[in-house]
Inverse folding.
């Protein structure tokens, strides 16, 4: 068994085979995987001299409040049929995190296939996302829309630029390499895209991109990018205009709105379409996770109003169980003196007389990002402290629910 960096000449064909085995691609699109692996960083687990597990990370940014953090997005974890139950995915993910943390990444996020697996390497669940399937004609958007521009896979650079400058709130993410978008667009089945070029430089300002199978759908909108709420409303009006022909559209709720506010009689539509091909639905789930990689750097970019709150933090990081002595990064665990306020900080050590919070990095990351409060996490996750400290943390960390705005 061997763990090493992805080598295109040696590993490309094997990684394509892994992706086919897990059902992510078909043979016709196998070549896109190699282009994808040229973006960011990748590690492989080799068995009998063949890559049998691969982990891909992509650099980007995640917003915390008004500050951007250096993001290491875990954008693909795949294990072949012959390497299951060997611990390869956990070890490779840990190695990839270590490499990115050593290179300066401050936080990591990923899309999870199931609750619990990535907790082993320090991740904690992100906020709930709302997924709607609805009749576009039921959108109650009181405005018109202009004829859009048609977008194709050839517009990948414009789409990436729009995603970088799009409106982002707390938790909003970007991925830096433009060709990540090229590959994602190339993987889209029955692709369609519509957008407007109102950016200051004449570039793409707001758009939708997704899948349009069949005459009546259901359409699947994978990406929505916009610079202002007014542009978002124009996109929703554009989607409403598809309702003459399209019976249902599915999409994640955009971060800035409650989509149910804009649907006519949503409960009636769900009742009347239940069990049909075009059934209206509203599903809620936390499908992504996050973790802090560098506590001092993340806290230095944390801005919280009001009086300072200081405490000792005893942080554990389960990723250490998957790391070996060759890694430059030992995980984020350890003892810190934390100050939360307009100028937050975390310094190694402890201070006598301060209350102490005990937490795993996953639970602490969830609290720090505003996913759930300290008191609740003390009952449901690996986080504990005295009641006075927990209540003080609840009062101090009052953030909007984090929304990635980019599904990876």
């Amino acid at each position: 068994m061997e763990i090493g960096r992805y080598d295109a000449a040696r590993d490309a064909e094997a990684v394509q085979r892994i992706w086919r085995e897990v059902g992510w691609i078909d043979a016709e699109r196998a070549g896109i995987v190699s282009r994808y692996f040229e973006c960011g960083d990748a590690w492989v687990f080799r068995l009998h001299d063949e890559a049998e597990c691969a982990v891909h990370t992509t650099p980007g940014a995640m917003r915390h409040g008004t500050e951007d953090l250096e993001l290491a997005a875990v954008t693909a974890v795949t294990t072949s049929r012959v390497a299951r139950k060997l611990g390869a995915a956990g070890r490779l993910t840990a190695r990839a995190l270590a490499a990115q943390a050593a290179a300066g990444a401050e936080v990591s996020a990923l899309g999870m296939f199931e609750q619990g697996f990535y907790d082993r390497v320090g991740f904690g669940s992100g906020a709930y996302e709302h997924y709607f399937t609805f009749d576009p004609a039921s959108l109650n958007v009181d405005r018109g829309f202009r004829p859009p521009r048609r977008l194709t896979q050839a517009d990948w650079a414009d789409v990436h630029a729009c995603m970088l400058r799009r409106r982002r709130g707390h938790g909003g993410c970007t991925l830096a390499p433009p060709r990540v978008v090229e590959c994602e667009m190339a993987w889209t089945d029955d692709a369609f895209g519509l957008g407007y070029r109102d950016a200051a430089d004449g570039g793409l300002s707001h758009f939708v991109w997704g899948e349009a199978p069949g005459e009546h759908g259901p359409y699947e909108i994978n990406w929505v990018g916009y610079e202002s709420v007014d542009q978002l409303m124009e996109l929703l009006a554009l989607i409403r205009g598809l309702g003459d022909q399209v019976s249902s559209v599915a999409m994640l709720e955009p971060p800035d709105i409650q989509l149910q506010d804009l649907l006519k009689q949503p409960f009636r539509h769900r009742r009347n379409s239940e069990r049909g091909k075009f059934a209206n639905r509203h599903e809620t789930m936390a499908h992504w996770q996050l973790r802090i990689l560098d506590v001092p750097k993340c806290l230095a970019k944390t801005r919280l109003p009001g009086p300072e709150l200081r405490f000792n933090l005893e942080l554990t990081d389960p990723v250490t169980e998957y790391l070996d002595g060759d890694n430059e990064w030992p995980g984020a665990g350890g003892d810190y003196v934390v100050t939360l306020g307009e100028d937050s900080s975390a310094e190694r050590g402890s201070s006598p007389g301060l209350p102490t919070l005990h937490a795993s990095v996953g639970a602490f990351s969830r609290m720090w990002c505003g996913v759930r409060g300290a008191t609740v996490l003390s009952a449901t996750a690996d986080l504990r402290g005295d009641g006075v400290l927990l209540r003080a943390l609840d009062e101090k960390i009052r953030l909007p629910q984090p929304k990635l705005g980019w599904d990876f």
The two ends are 29 Å apart (CA to CA). The chain has a mean pLDDT of 96. The domain at 2-127 is CATH 3.40.630.30 (Aminopeptidase). Residues 370 and 397 are 7 Å apart (CA to CA).
